[in-house]
Write a structure and sequence with these properties.
Helices cover 33% and strands 22% of the residues. The chain has 10 helices and 13 strands. The protein has a 5-stranded mixed β-barrel. A two-stranded antiparallel ribbon has the order 6-7. Helix 2 links the parallel strand 8 and strand 9. About 5% of the residues have low confidence.
């Protein structure tokens, strides 16, 4: 086993530590590979104590510096996380506003969308906005081409909202070959998408084996159950590297490049009368004029405005969550912090 087979570029390790790449993560249990082989690992106490949120912990795809155990059956210790070249980040599911790392050091983010009843351009725009902010290159993989009778129209609709490569495939050998040709040796590709879009099926075909189980899609709504429950990095026979991730029922925005994703709206906005135009009801709005002329789809403008507002709100609330975590680590709680500040003022007085 050699790290050169896992996409290593210019990473190095300090004296006494070994360079490794995280290949799987499940419930804070890490699996990693290095030139000495495969190890299970845990993070050092220093990482735990210094962490403000999930972004301060390793994730699948990370390059890390580890201290290997004398006995190969024991846990290795992750002591440092190398600088990330790219990172795919989202808000955790539910009402909390913490961040969740999905994958790191990815060359291509493949946003997967099924061409069945689950086809949704607005959801794809959301994935593209996060992919564009990740530092990786975005591409779209349209799956289940054998389930649609409007393939040409759907592909044209996707190409109308993105300049990213669009790959159309199904479960046939020819359909998989199109995707396999796109994946280059030594590069890392993260497959992302909703449950039931067929990510795991595609990866099985690329691997040439049914290594991972797949679940049936519910006929009622064309959604699937989570097949992949743990993120994992896999080497393909072709030499490409893929990261399979659990299906996402929601993709909350934290770091998103809405500007790049909606470059058509940005280009129209240059013609607006006001530089800070919100494209809602301002006079002289070139974007609203484009909607009225049929040049711009009204739903796309609504999606643009919603994503900008959501990102701003989530980032603000995430900042508060990180600040609260900092206070808790320093003082135990906001209440104790206020008590200590009051005592300090009393002492000075």
């Amino acid at each position: 086993m050699k790290l050169s087979e896992y996409g290593i570029t210019n990473q190095t390790a300090t004296t006494g530590l070994t360079l490794a790449r995280v290949t799987a993560l499940s419930h804070q249990q890490y699996t990693l590979v290095c030139d000495a082989g495969q190890f299970f690992a845990q993070v050092t106490g220093r990482i735990v104590n210094m962490a403000m949120d999930a972004t301060d912990f390793p994730t699948v795809g990370d390059w890390v510096q580890v201290r290997l155990p004398q006995n190969a059956q024991d846990l290795a210790t992750i002591e440092r996380i190398c600088n990330r070249q790219s990172v795919f980040l989202r808000k955790v599911a539910g009402r909390r506003f913490n961040a969740q790392l999905v994958a790191a050091n990815v060359d291509w983010v493949l946003s997967c969308m099924a061409l069945d009843a689950n086809f949704n351009l607005r959801r794809l725009e959301r994935y593209l906005a996060v992919a564009n902010a990740s530092g990786a290159q975005p591409a779209v993989v349209l799956t289940k081409a054998d389930t649609t009778s409007t393939l040409i129209n759907q592909v044209e609709a996707v190409k109308a909202i993105t300049d990213a490569p669009v790959i159309v495939c199904d479960t046939s050998a020819a359909g998989i070959d199109t995707l396999a040709t796109f994946i280059m040796p030594g590069m890392t590709y993260a497959f992302l998408g909703s449950s039931g879009v067929g990510k795991t099926t595609l990866i099985n075909r690329l691997l040439g084996t049914q290594a991972y189980a797949t679940n049936a899609v519910r006929i009622s709504d064309n959604h699937g159950r989570h097949t992949t429950t743990a993120r994992q990095l896999l080497r393909l026979p072709s030499g490409g590297i893929v990261i399979d991730t659990p299906g996402m029922r929601e993709l909350g925005l934290l770091e998103a490049d809405v500007t790049t994703t909606f470059s058509d709206i940005q280009a129209l906005a240059v013609g607006c009368r006001f530089k800070d135009c919100t494209h809602t009801n301002e006079p002289g709005c070139a974007v609203q004029a484009a909607v009225g002329d049929g040049e711009l789809n009204a739903d796309r403008l609504t999606s643009y405005q919603q994503l900008i507002a959501e990102q701003a709100t989530n980032n603000q609330l995430r900042g508060k969550a990180r600040e609260n975590e900092k206070i808790n680590r320093m003082f135990g709680s906001k209440k104790l912090m206020k008590q200590k500040m009051k005592a300090a003022r009393h002492k000075r007085g």
